[in-house]
Amino acid sequence: MIQLTHVTKTFGEKIAVEDVSCEIEKGELYGLIGPNGAGKTTIIKMIMGLYRPNMGTMRIGEFDIGEEPQKVKKTLGYVPDEPFVYEKLTGREFLHFVGELYGMNQEERTKSIQNLLNIFSLHDVIDGLFENYSRGNKQKLSILAAILHQPQVLIIDEPVVGIDPQGIRKTKELLTRFVKDGGTVLLSTHTLSIAEEICTRIGFLKEGKLIEEGTISGLRRKAKKVQATLEELYFSLVT
Predict the structure, then answer these.
(1) From edge to edge, which strands make up the β-sheet containing 184-188?
(2) 29-33 vs 201-206, strand pairing mode
(3) pTM over cut 0.90
(4) Is the pLDDT confidence value at 85 over 90?
(5) Is 173 within 8 Å of 163 (Cβ atoms)?
(6) Residues 68, 83: Cα–Cα separation, whole Å
């Protein structure tokens, strides 16, 4: 569903991503793990069309991201590392705005929004201005906005920053259900315990290069540590 082939991205003389190739299949929840500056967010922004690679190709399903960006974006939901909101809109207005951008009519938007609000129990704040939301509630609304139009693929950069424990559980359930229903998730996070719990496959980035990838059990075999946590595998295989 997501295919990166020999992708390289530079900023001036700095190489942010170097010759990365990987394929993420339909129904996978793929975790992208690495230290700050490893290239995780750069890869995500290239997939979203915010950056263009200097070399290589990127595809979502049958569409080339560079050649057919509008078709690609219709299939994607995106949660950035910092929730983007319009401070003078209410949460409900924001969700309607996002839904309209994706071509949903008012009846579709209203029904979908009502169903989504039950996920995080946001009924008490949804009609308040975004400027008064907590960091966690902004993040929750960003997640709901990403799935509002029923995308095929979710691209998520740090999903649970600022979210309370109950919200974290709901987020994990949402992502797990999304892939069980045939969706695909690319998840970048520093919260290794969550990645270990929900990801079907992990990719380790270091200095812009994808140095290892596989299932948790496969990575344990490579590290020759059959009981290792993802944190232990990270330090064994990356550092």
Answers:
(1) 76-79, 153-157, 184-188, 29-33, 201-206, 209-214
(2) parallel
(3) yes
(4) no
(5) no
(6) 26
pLDDT digits (tens, 9 = 90+) for 18-65: 999 999 999 999 999 999 889 999 999 999 999 999 999 999 999 999
CA pair distance 81, 35, nearest whole angstrom:
15
Q: Which residue, among 119, 149, 125, 155, has the nearest Cα to 137 in the 3D structure?
A: 125
Instruction: Tell me the pLDDT band of 95, cut-offs 50, 70 and 90.
Output: very high
Structural domains of the chain in order of their starting residue, each with its CATH number: 2-82+152-237 (3.40.50.300)
Burial class for 165, CB neighbours closer than 10 Å (0-12, 13-18, 19+):
exposed
Angle between helices 91-101 and 106-120 (to 10 degrees): 130
Per-residue model confidence (pLDDT) at position 82: 83
Radius of gyration of the chain (CA): 18
Question: Is 83 exposed, middle or buried, given 0-12, 13-18 or 19+ CB atoms closer than 10 A?
Answer: buried
Q: What is the pLDDT of residue 238?
A: 84
Please report which confidence band the pLDDT of residue 212 belongs to, taking 50, 70 and 90 as the band edges. very high
